[in-house]
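Problem: given the chain below (327 residues), write out its structure.
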Amino acid sequence: MSIIVDNGDSFGRVRAGKGLFGLGRFFAAQFGARSSARKLNSTGPEHLTSPLAMHAHTKLEIFRQVVSQHMAQGRMMQDSPLAGAVLKAGKKKSCFGHAGVGLASEALDAMRDIAERDGAGLFLISGSLLGPVRDGHLLEHDYDLDFGVFSDDPRMDRLEQSLRGDPRFEVTKVFNITPELALYNRYMAGQTDKPLKYTILYKGIVTVDIFVHLNFEGVVYHGTDRNIWLNSPFALAPLRSGDKTYLAPDDSETYLEENYGNWRVPVTDYHCATDTPNSGTVVSYRALFNGIKNYMRFKRAGDERRAGIIHEQIEAMGDSVSNGWKA
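Solution.
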């Protein structure tokens, strides 16, 4: 089952539109020539001074130039220094920080135990749910642990305090809804500064992500300022995996089908931005830049299928804004 929500009503599904060159002109006119923060201030009631707005110019200029010079005909210029700027090398993700499944399983159980003690409804999602449901253990090729928590869970603050006070854990980042996200994404309107994601390190090695799940017009969503994923509403229930029990969506198979499609068939070459049937549209500077970066990487690798999906996602961002999809 794949959730498709009409673009004009709420989240929006990806769809082709004006072409990348037209989109580049649109965003250049919308955000580019003057101060990004000043332009955004003129379109909404909130004073937008977040770091995202402050450093958006550099990314946006690269975006504009790459779009106008190298993507007009959907082609890539291999020798472009601008392409190199977008495609700068990043750290390759490794299996649970090279620690393997052993330490990751230890981290999984430690997170569960602390959440149960504090009464927080921390539940398995994404690959951390797929592995236990399908294989009876964590995926051996995964690179982090993924949990969910509902936005109205009254014990999340206590859980965060417990994690900060436990020497095994380090809360490295709490990503909140920025004024920009609340302004340009209707489902985040009025929720500025509410958390979207917690990133935690276990023993300095295993990365643990906690995604806050929010409700909007009968859809449950979670994500960041780059990606958003949509699910049918669900309750929580115990999930038995091997000799262990975790909290999970009550209909785990439906949740996995929405996330992965045919989740029963193992896939090791997986990309969260292109291979999730339930991805939606999030409008932000970082989403634009990340989309261009992924498009260029897939084009260089000859992966036309994924490049096409990213193309459509970028078009959907422009369509969302041009259709008045603002708070």
